[in-house]
Write a structure and sequence with these properties.
CATH topology of one domain in chain A: Collagenase (Catalytic Domain)
Number of domains of chain B: 1
Largest interface: A-B, 42 and 43 residues
Helix content of chain A: 10-25%
Radius of gyration of chain A: 18 Å
CATH class of chain B: Mainly Alpha
Distance between the termini of chain B: 47 Å
Number of strands of chain A: 9
Structural class of chain B: mainly alpha
Helix content of chain B: 55-70%
Radius of gyration of chain B: 16 Å
Strand content of chain A: 15-25%
CATH class of one domain in chain A: Alpha Beta
Oligomer: heterodimer
Largest sheet of chain B: none
Number of helices of chain A: 7
């Protein structure tokens, strides 16, 4: 059975099973398994994500913290985050991909290594996203080789997250797969006018204080993405 | 005005740092980068790999010392950054390449081969030919084969 957290129905430390059951219109007494099997509720939309780990992040709290943070931000867009599967990718076939060459990491272009890594899709369904956790994410288009926190590919439905990532990297990169761009008006790359309250800041996510926001236009974009599916509740 | 650690971290903290822009901080940033690589910053270990990368973009004499320290790190992610950063330097560092080309991590050997294919230095042909035949990783053998013909004896 899927865990309560991976179901994506529980967001934040205060969420109780009873409370979520009510939000999901469950009859009481309620079986937890019935609640977990109920599609996507209590959110009107849901992103389904597969976690595939070559190298765990250095961050204290690791992937659990990144997912928790992402859930809390995405909940403000009424989008749940369901972790469909977790897999460790180990073995010699992953040795070179663990230090991933992402080419230019630009929209619409993917590198041969991104393509190779994304071929590992055990159990990944249509319009489901995969987060690959790797040692290094390296941009290789001139002016040189460059270490990144992560890189998203919309066309492959994947993100690569480096070991050096911040607690917001996963949420930020998944945001890119949902067609979100870096926010404007930050005077990047100087970043003298950074807005540290926004998830899609193009400046330092390490500077984010508290829980970052997504504005209404970003929410509309996220909800319209092919990777964000309508729940049974919204369909009916 | 002297460059502060905060200015350096401001640049390195980005999801996708603009290293070319950050390199405008100049050589005054190098002591901070050295510190970040040496300490592998306990609060945010993400800065060390990026610091080595930025040092290579600044590309001063002191940058080589920073990459040498990164190359000796027990952290494979930092060694991978050192290996990848070799390609960014105007002057190749054969000692760093010689050590990292034998690294147990295939991802790191891949970045050394990438740097060799860019710098095309002399003195590595025998090593790379050997890799193309005997490296345990099939992708590294293929890459080494491609690089062999490009580098000088």
């Amino acid at each position: 059975m899927k865990s309560l957290l991976d179901s994506g129905k529980f967001v934040g430390p205060g969420a109780s099973v009873k409370q979520v059951g009510r939000q999901c219109d469950m009859p009481f007494p309620m079986k937890v398994s019935d609640l977990l099997n109920k599609a996507e509720c209590p959110f009107s939309r849901c992103d389904r994500i597969h976690i595939k780990v070559l190298t765990n992040p250095n961050l204290s709290g690791g992937i659990t913290l990144m997912l928790s943070n992402m859930r809390r931000v995405y909940a403000t867009a009424d989008i749940g985050i369901e972790v469909v599967s977790r897999e460790v990718l180990a073995g010699p076939q992953f040795a070179t991909l663990n230090s991933l060459d992402v080419g230019g990491c630009t929209t619409g272009a993917v590198s041969p290594e991104q393509t190779q890594l994304s071929a590992n899709r055990n159990g990944v369904g249509d319009n489901e996203l995969v987060a690959y956790f790797v040692s290094n994410v390296v941009k290789t288009i001139p002016p040189g080789t460059q270490q990144l926190n992560g890189c998203a590919s919309v066309s492959l439905g994947m993100v690569a997250v480096a070991q050096i990532a911040s607690q917001w990297t996963l949420a930020h990169e998944i945001g890119h797969t949902l067609d979100l761009q870096h926010i404007t008006g930050e005077n990047a790359p100087a970043c003298t006018t950074q807005d540290p309250t926004r998830l899609m800041t193009g400046c330092s996510t390490s500077n984010i204080t508290g829980f970052p926001t997504v504005v209404q236009s970003e929410i509309d974009t996220m909800r319209a993405s092919k990777f964000t599916r309508a729940s049974q509740r919204e369909v009916s | 005005m002297p460059v502060t650690l905060e200015q350096v971290i401001e640049q390195l903290g980005k999801e996708e740092p603009d290293y070319e822009f950050a390199a405008r901080l100049g050589t005054d940033a190098l002591p901070h980068l050295l510190r970040l690589v040496q300490e592998t910053d306990r609060q945010n270990p993400g800065y060390a790999a990026k610091a080595a990368c930025l040092a290579s973009f600044i590309d001063a004499d002191e940058s080589a010392a920073i990459l040498r320290i990164a190359a000796r790190s027990p952290d494979p992610a930092l060694r991978a950054s050192a290996a990848a950063s070799l390609a960014n330097l105007k002057r190749f560092l054969p000692d760093v390449a010689s050590s990292l080309i034998k690294d147990e991590d295939a991802g790191i050997r891949k970045w050394v081969l990438n740097a060799l294919s860019i710098h095309i230095p002399s003195g590595f042909k025998a090593d790379v030919e050997e890799m193309s035949r005997t490296d345990p990783d099939v992708k590294i053998r293929q890459l080494a084969k491609q690089v062999t013909d490009r580098i000088k004896n």
